[in-house]
Amino acid sequence: xxxxxxxxxxxxxxxxxxxxxxxxxxxxxxxxxxxxxxxxxxxxxxxxxxxxxxxxxxxxxxxxxxxxxxxxxxxxxxxxxxxxxxxxxxxxxxxxxxxxxxxxxxxxxxxxxxxxxxxxxxxxxxxxxxxxxxxxxxxxxxxx
Length: 144
Hints:
By secondary structure, the chain is an alpha+beta fold. Helices cover 23% and strands 18% of the residues.
Protein backbone atom coordinates (compact mmCIF):
# COMPACT_ATOMS: atom_id res chain seq x y z
CA UNK A 1 0.00 0.00 0.00
CA UNK A 2 3.02 2.32 0.33
CA UNK A 3 2.95 3.24 -3.39
CA UNK A 4 -0.70 4.25 -3.32
CA UNK A 5 -1.88 7.83 -3.55
CA UNK A 6 -4.81 8.82 -1.37
CA UNK A 7 -5.87 11.67 -3.67
CA UNK A 8 -5.87 9.37 -6.70
CA UNK A 9 -7.72 6.62 -4.84
CA UNK A 10 -10.36 8.66 -2.99
CA UNK A 11 -11.99 9.68 -6.28
CA UNK A 12 -12.88 6.05 -6.98
CA UNK A 13 -14.86 5.42 -3.79
CA UNK A 14 -18.11 6.78 -2.40
CA UNK A 15 -16.41 9.82 -0.88
CA UNK A 16 -18.67 11.35 1.76
CA UNK A 17 -16.36 14.40 1.91
CA UNK A 18 -16.69 15.23 -1.81
CA UNK A 19 -17.96 18.73 -2.53
CA UNK A 20 -17.67 19.32 -6.26
CA UNK A 21 -15.55 18.36 -9.26
CA UNK A 22 -14.93 19.34 -12.84
CA UNK A 23 -13.21 17.54 -15.68
CA UNK A 24 -9.71 18.01 -14.23
CA UNK A 25 -10.05 18.76 -10.50
CA UNK A 26 -11.80 17.44 -7.41
CA UNK A 27 -12.74 19.20 -4.16
CA UNK A 28 -13.46 17.62 -0.79
CA UNK A 29 -13.66 18.62 2.84
CA UNK A 30 -10.45 17.95 4.75
CA UNK A 31 -10.59 14.96 7.10
CA UNK A 32 -8.65 16.96 9.71
CA UNK A 33 -9.96 20.50 9.29
CA UNK A 34 -8.03 23.40 10.75
CA UNK A 35 -11.33 25.32 10.84
CA UNK A 36 -14.93 24.43 9.89
CA UNK A 37 -15.27 24.24 6.11
CA UNK A 38 -11.57 23.51 5.43
CA UNK A 39 -11.32 22.00 1.93
CA UNK A 40 -8.77 20.50 -0.42
CA UNK A 41 -8.76 20.91 -4.19
CA UNK A 42 -6.55 18.60 -6.22
CA UNK A 43 -6.04 17.37 -9.79
CA UNK A 44 -7.75 14.13 -10.74
CA UNK A 45 -4.61 12.99 -12.50
CA UNK A 46 -1.51 12.37 -10.43
CA UNK A 47 0.53 15.57 -10.45
CA UNK A 48 2.92 16.55 -7.71
CA UNK A 49 3.56 20.25 -8.14
CA UNK A 50 1.56 23.38 -8.81
CA UNK A 51 4.34 24.24 -11.23
CA UNK A 52 3.47 21.17 -13.34
CA UNK A 53 0.09 22.62 -14.38
CA UNK A 54 -0.53 23.85 -17.89
CA UNK A 55 -2.24 27.19 -18.47
CA UNK A 56 -5.54 25.40 -19.21
CA UNK A 57 -5.22 23.40 -16.00
CA UNK A 58 -4.59 26.56 -13.96
CA UNK A 59 -7.79 28.05 -15.38
CA UNK A 60 -9.76 24.89 -14.60
CA UNK A 61 -8.33 24.86 -11.07
CA UNK A 62 -9.27 28.49 -10.58
CA UNK A 63 -12.87 27.86 -11.69
CA UNK A 64 -13.25 24.98 -9.24
CA UNK A 65 -11.59 27.02 -6.51
CA UNK A 66 -14.19 29.79 -6.98
CA UNK A 67 -17.05 27.26 -6.92
CA UNK A 68 -15.65 25.63 -3.79
CA UNK A 69 -15.33 29.01 -2.07
CA UNK A 70 -18.99 29.73 -2.87
CA UNK A 71 -20.04 26.45 -1.27
CA UNK A 72 -17.97 27.20 1.84
CA UNK A 73 -19.42 30.72 2.01
CA UNK A 74 -22.96 29.36 1.77
CA UNK A 75 -22.47 26.63 4.39
CA UNK A 76 -20.06 28.24 6.87
CA UNK A 77 -20.07 32.05 6.37
CA UNK A 78 -16.37 32.59 7.11
CA UNK A 79 -14.88 36.04 7.60
CA UNK A 80 -11.85 35.32 5.39
CA UNK A 81 -9.71 32.60 3.82
CA UNK A 82 -6.17 31.31 3.70
CA UNK A 83 -5.33 29.45 0.51
CA UNK A 84 -2.07 27.59 0.25
CA UNK A 85 0.03 24.83 -1.23
CA UNK A 86 2.72 22.92 0.62
CA UNK A 87 5.22 22.70 -2.23
CA UNK A 88 7.74 20.02 -1.24
CA UNK A 89 8.48 18.01 1.90
CA UNK A 90 10.50 20.90 3.37
CA UNK A 91 7.32 23.01 3.12
CA UNK A 92 5.25 20.40 4.97
CA UNK A 93 3.75 18.36 2.12
CA UNK A 94 2.84 14.87 3.35
CA UNK A 95 1.20 13.63 0.14
CA UNK A 96 3.10 13.73 -3.13
CA UNK A 97 -0.01 14.79 -5.03
CA UNK A 98 -0.72 18.47 -5.56
CA UNK A 99 -3.49 19.79 -3.31
CA UNK A 100 -4.58 23.31 -2.46
CA UNK A 101 -5.72 24.00 1.07
CA UNK A 102 -8.72 26.33 1.33
CA UNK A 103 -8.94 27.26 4.99
CA UNK A 104 -11.87 29.41 6.09
CA UNK A 105 -10.94 31.96 8.74
CA UNK A 106 -13.20 33.36 11.41
CA UNK A 107 -12.87 36.49 13.48
CA UNK A 108 -11.29 35.39 16.76
CA UNK A 109 -10.07 31.94 15.61
CA UNK A 110 -6.58 33.04 16.65
CA UNK A 111 -5.64 35.83 19.02
CA UNK A 112 -3.75 37.83 16.40
CA UNK A 113 -4.11 36.88 12.72
CA UNK A 114 -1.50 39.47 11.63
CA UNK A 115 0.85 37.84 9.13
CA UNK A 116 -1.84 35.47 7.86
CA UNK A 117 -0.39 32.52 6.04
CA UNK A 118 3.00 33.16 7.62
CA UNK A 119 1.53 31.75 10.83
CA UNK A 120 0.16 28.31 11.43
CA UNK A 121 -2.72 27.79 13.82
CA UNK A 122 -0.84 26.30 16.77
CA UNK A 123 -1.42 22.63 17.40
CA UNK A 124 -3.50 21.97 14.28
CA UNK A 125 -0.82 21.22 11.71
CA UNK A 126 0.44 17.72 12.50
CA UNK A 127 -2.51 15.35 12.37
CA UNK A 128 -0.54 12.16 11.67
CA UNK A 129 -1.30 10.50 15.03
CA UNK A 130 -5.00 11.32 14.74
CA UNK A 131 -5.03 10.05 11.13
CA UNK A 132 -3.56 6.73 12.23
CA UNK A 133 -6.22 6.39 14.95
CA UNK A 134 -9.23 7.40 12.83
CA UNK A 135 -8.21 5.87 9.51
CA UNK A 136 -5.84 2.92 10.10
CA UNK A 137 -6.55 1.73 6.55
CA UNK A 138 -4.72 4.82 5.26
CA UNK A 139 -1.44 3.98 7.00
CA UNK A 140 0.39 3.37 3.73
CA UNK A 141 -0.52 6.76 2.31
CA UNK A 142 1.56 8.88 4.67
CA UNK A 143 5.29 8.96 5.34
CA UNK A 144 6.67 7.56 8.57
